[in-house]
Amino acid sequence: MAALTDHLVIERLATNPVVRPQDVQPSRPGMEVLCAFNAGAIRVDDEFVLLLRVAERPLSGSMPDDAMILDLHAPEPKTRPATGAESAAGFVAFSVLDLTASTPGIATRYLPRDLPGLDLTDPRSIRYAGQTYLTSISHLRLARSRDGVTFRVDPQPALAPATAEEEFGCEDPRLTRIGDTFYLAYTAVSRYGIGTALARSPDLRRFERLGVAFYPENRDVALFPEQIGGRYVALHRPQPRHIGPPTMWLGYSTDLHLWGDHRFLMAPRPGMWDSKRIGGGAVPFRVPEGWLELYHGVDEADRYCLGAVLLDGDQPGKVLARSPRPFLEPEAPFEREGLLGNVVFTCGAVPLDDGRMRVYYGAADSVTGAADLDVKGLLATLT
Length: 383
Hints:
The protein has helices spanning about 335, 375-380, and strands spanning about 10, 30-45, 45-60, 70, 80, 90-100, 105-110, 125-130, 130-135, 135-145, 150-155, 170-180, 180-190, 195-200, 210-215, 220-225, 230-240, 250-255, 260-265, 275-280, 285, 290-300, 305-310, 320, 345-350, 355-365, 365-375. By secondary structure, the protein is mostly beta strands. Mean pLDDT is about 95; it is low at about 1-5.
């Protein structure tokens, strides 16, 4: 591949962010939309379709009469009714999927703010005595557009938490079309960890769950859009707990249910823009040179950027070239400031009609941005 040049032009859309929290209607009363980001993306005929990760949290400032306080001192977390003397100011509220209720659904729980040892330093999580809860709960929401710029967001979720493995939410979807069927890989989060589940749809309107495909801790899964050597192929990112950094792998399946023949693909590179952590991003797509994959990398300052890797067309476990520097960095204000600043993170990109591609990306874990780049120009920067 050619040496890195400065000829690659990436253009952020002038209308960025293309989807903001205020563009999304809350899924139920008593909730507010905190973030709308990390969207899976696909183009079907003349329509652009996003599957957004929508993070919601309970409205602040009030506590209903039937509020339930979470007791973390018991061997297993239990709830008790709030007393009339307790007010919302003394509690932190969060939502989980409650499968024990007579009508299972999203339920709000409260924790005392003065609980000794309660850790609220990360705005995304609540930590206490080795237990973790999330300050928001995510579902997946469809949005559609004719021009890929102005989106109409559905009023209700396309896929909402419904199983024990999704107790804390459904996150970071990747959409792949294989034949006439659309497949969805999404992160399933619960007290048991972070795994990846699959679903399928004939029409991008209704989804059928296929269950957990990659058990915790594993995420950033994307299915290749065609079988290779008679097997389905998936990028995935295991999370080692003892030895080594998070690295990207390939897995194979003949039926999309049982996955095996797992093979290491690539690792972070010391001293570079992806030195600390890497993970898959958009669904891989074919170019004449092989498979082009847009992935995210994290440096030692916890700054998320986007780069690309070229994989062999017949043997995707073979890396041909890789970005020596990112093609998209958090530079715009909406990318640097938000729930988690200095983050650009993609779950989807779609081809345009002129040799370019439009990359949809989560910015600062808060909003959805979009940027256009020339595919040949990107390939020319890989080394």
